[in-house]
Design goal:
The complex is a heterodimer of chains A (about 270) and B (about 250). Chain A is mostly helical and about 270 residues long. Chain A has twelve helices and two strands. Chain A has a two-stranded antiparallel ribbon. In chain A, helix 11 runs antiparallel to helix 12. The mean pLDDT of chain A is about 85. Chain B is mostly helical and about 250 residues long. Chain B folds into two domains: about 1-40, no CATH class; about 50-250, Orthogonal Bundle (MetI-like fold). Chain B is about 80% helix and about 0% strand. In chain B, helix 8 (about 155-165) runs antiparallel to helix 9 (about 170-195), helix 9 runs antiparallel to helix 12 and helix 11 packs antiparallel against helix 12. The longest helix of chain B has 30 residues, at about 55-85. The model of chain B has no long low-confidence stretch (mean pLDDT about 90). Classes of the chains: A mainly alpha (about 270), B mainly alpha (about 250). The interface between A and B is large, with 78 and 78 residues.
Chain lengths: ~270, ~250
């Protein structure tokens, strides 16, 4: 019974808006007005006009998700099995980094990587370069770095959560039976933390392919879908098109995620 | 072992350094946010407080944040109390369903809400629509925190109270509530911190008007002096401050 208010909120403000938003993707636009319709035109236009952006978005998202979950897995492993009594302090720092400053973090990376940024200032001061380098910002690298930075704490928590359930005896037993520490981590901890890894990867992947602030701010604009989706609402006034772009992006991303998860399970699970 | 220490050190440095730099530059006298540091000043804060859009933005942020905190904790506590009585598998599934908004890009949730409010419901955008938007994304965090606490709750205490004749409501008010109160306060502060920090959903559902994050966005596009750092630092202090208090009172660790 008590779940009902939460569920009602979820239905009224998440499921229902998304369903309506999905319906809108089949509508058409005449002049500046949306008209209820049943056309696949917006989906064709998405693939035709934004196919290349879609591919580069998915690539950036995949790289970000791989880098983020890899670092997060090792960091969670360190907190759980290697840090001893400092584990709690590390978890505390992770949680603090999680809840503070989405925009601030992006802004911070711009002032680190930018033309007048800290890296350039340091290199100039050391006499290693004569002119500021522009290779640090406004490209895919700066987007991946900034997104990884933002997503890392989010990825650590579910992985740590699934590692917390692994008894230390399991790892010790493997060691007693002659497994090296890498072997024990790969054969025992990795399969048992699969659930947390999947959640972390999915979250990192979906959030990064759907982000628009990071590419616009440190990516030099037009390289990711989020930027073009947002434009349909702020300037383009083509909501049905923006909707088709959003659902294409989400659907393709989910399919890729499911394929990767199946592959990962085949490789890692006994 | 040495390798692990280095790795932990590098990750922590990666997590903390950018935020420290933002704070450092908010007190640096140079108008450029770059090295070397030139001297200490409060000028950027003075300039921020003199900015006429700052105070309304702060007020809006606080109104939204506190309303969302109270509402999400009320709904979340009810949900968590019910979820612990479910079978573990059912509770897990329901949690996964309710957590779906955490997985979706905020942009898509925000746009869907915008279309929903404007086209389907035809309601004006403003603080109430922002509050509703925040509730959707914050509710899963609140439920997860309270659910984690209640999973280790000693229900025999409540049963004793019931055996001694207390009504369910009285048992809840005198036993359950006082015990989980630190967690409730913690969850409320986490909700406040996420709400204060949210940019994407706020930007899409507020219509006119500013909150602190949308003001950061505006400043980022119009000016490049460290007033942004002062505002960003303030935002960090508010959101990280409430997180630290939350983690201390609730002892929640993931």
């Amino acid at each position: 019974m008590g779940v009902l208010p939460a569920l009602a909120l979820w239905v009224a403000l998440f499921a229902l808006p998304l369903c309506f938003f999905f319906i809108v993707s089949f509508w058409s636009v005449r002049g500046l007005a949306m008209r209820p319709d049943l056309t696949l035109q917006n989906y064709w236009a998405t693939l035709r006009d934004y196919g290349d952006v879609l591919v580069s978005t998915l690539l950036i998202g995949l790289i970000t998700a791989f880098v983020t979950t890899a670092i997060a897995w090792f960091f969670a492993f360190a907190i759980r099995f290697r840090a001893g009594r400092f584990g709690n302090a590390l978890l505390f720092i992770t949680l603090i980094a999680l809840f503070g400053g989405y925009l601030v973090k992006i802004y911070a990376w711009k002032s680190i990587l930018g033309r007048d940024g800290i890296i350039n200032a340091a290199l100039l001061a050391l006499g290693l370069i004569d002119e500021p380098l522009t290779v640090f910002i406004y490209n895919a690298n700066s987007v991946v770095i900034t997104l990884t930075y933002f997503l890392l704490p989010f990825a650590v928590l579910p992985i740590y959560g699934s590692m917390r359930a692994i008894p230390e005896d399991f790892v010790e037993a493997a060691r007693d039976l002659g497994a090296g520490s890498i072997r024990a981590a790969a054969d025992i901890v990795l399969p048992l933390s699969e659930k947390g890894l999947s959640v972390a990867f999915l979250m990192a992947f979906l959030v990064s392919v759907g982000d628009y602030v990071t590419p616009r701010y440190v990516g030099g604009g037009a390289s990711m879908m989020g930027h073009f989706i947002e434009t349909q609402f702020s300037f383009g006034f083509n909501w049905p098109m923006g909707s088709a772009m959003s659902f294409t992006l989400m659907a393709v991303s989910l399919v890729i995620y499911l394929l990767l998860r199946a592959l990962f399970r085949r490789l890692v699970l006994p | 072992m040495q390798g692990w220490r280095l790795f932990i050190f590098l990750v922590i440095t990666f997590l903390v350094t950018p935020l420290i730099l933002v704070i450092l530059f908010s007190f640096n006298s140079s108008a450029l946010t770059s090295l070397p540091l030139t001297g200490f000043t409060f000028d950027w804060y003075r300039r921020l407080f003199a900015n006429e859009s700052f105070w309304p933005a702060l007020t809006n942020s606080l109104i939204i944040g506190f309303t969302v905190a109270v509402l999400s904790v009320a709904v979340g506590t009810l949900a968590a109390l019910a979820l612990v009585r479910f079978k573990p598998k059912g509770a897990d599934r329901l949690m996964a369903l309710l957590s779906a908004p955490m997985m979706m890009p905020a942009l898509i949730i925000g746009i869907a809400l915008l279309v929903f409010f404007k086209r389907l419901l035809d309601v004006p955008l403003g603080l109430p629509t922002v509050i509703l938007g925040h509730l959707v994304i914050i509710q899963p965090f609140v439920i997860a925190i309270l659910h984690a606490r209640l999973a280790t709750f000693d229900w025999s205490l409540v049963e004793s109270a019931r055996d001694l004749g207390a009504s369910p409501l009285r048992a809840f008010a005198t036993i359950t509530l006082p015990i989980i109160q630190p967690t409730i306060v913690g969850a409320a502060l986490i909700a406040l911190s996420i709400s204060l920090d949210d940019f994407v959903i706020t930007f899409l559902t507020i219509g006119a008007g500013n909150t602190l994050p949308t003001m950061v966005w505006g400043l980022v596009r119009t000016s490049l002096d460290p007033t942004i750092n002062a505002l960003a630092t303030l935002l960090l202090v508010l959101s990280i401050g409430s997180t630290i208090v939350a983690l201390s009172v609730s002892r929640y660790r993931g």
